[in-house]
Write a structure and sequence with these properties.
mainly alpha, two-stranded antiparallel sheet, 4 strands, 63% helix
């Protein structure tokens, strides 16, 4: 009869445990699908765009022409476990809440820049900016106070995505270095930074995926 030594027993036990862990990981894999996305993040906040572009000739007849917004097809995400899946869908739900705010801020920035360009003197521009700052605080402070810490950090990155410059750069450009430094120092007290940049290719790859699906009314 063959006697199994202590080292051999330990090797066999470790091998069995590793095999069991591998099987369990495979069994716990969760794939993303439309039903899960709706259940975890709610109904889409945008509809899939369709735009009338006029009448065109087709096969000898004039027919109405429509342009459809982009529709995205991604490979299904595979999560190792339920915790990882919930983390992704939590981010997606947060995007649904803060993305409209980032879009509003982009519109306000565009409007402010356009009006600033129409003002002839620095004095008029400074007065306009001061009034804008007061109005924007009245509009957005109540909304921002309702955000969680994670949502606030996400919004900082989404502002960079929408405006092509960080929150710090926006404040510095239109309100001066002192205010930019002050607001950034205040944000740093809560572990955030107005200098955070959006990285759709690496760090924020899954965020970008979720945004595209949200924008197109798919999620």
């Amino acid at each position: 009869m063959q006697i199994v030594g202590h080292k051999e027993k330990r090797f066999i036990v470790l091998s069995v445990m590793m095999l069991m862990a591998s099987v369990l990981c495979q069994a716990q894999e969760i794939k993303s699908d439309r039903a899960t996305e709706r259940a975890m993040t709610g109904e889409p906040i945008f509809s899939h765009g369709m735009y009338y572009t006029g009448m065109v000739e087709y096969d000898g007849e004039m027919i109405p022409s429509f342009l459809f917004a982009d529709y995205y097809v991604f490979g299904k995400l595979v999560f190792k476990n339920e915790r990882q899946a919930k983390k992704y869908y939590k981010i997606a739900a947060n995007i649904k809440k803060v993305y409209p705010i980032a879009c509003d801020i982009r519109r306000e920035v565009d409007k402010t820049i356009a009006h600033m360009d129409s003002l002839p003197t620095k004095k008029e521009k400074d007065a306009y900016l001061k009034q804008q700052e007061k109005e924007l605080k009245a509009i957005y402070f109540p909304k921002l106070k309702k955000l969680t810490f994670a949502q606030g950090k996400l919004l900082i990155k989404l502002i960079d995505r929408q405006c092509d410059m960080t929150g710090y750069e926006l404040i510095k450009k239109y309100m001066g270095s002192f205010k930019a430094g002050f607001y950034n120092a205040f944000a740093s007290l809560f572990g955030a930074s107005l200098k955070k940049e959006y990285d759709p290719d690496v760090d924020d790859r899954l965020t970008e995926r979720a945004i595209l699906l949200i924008e197109s009314g798919q999620m």
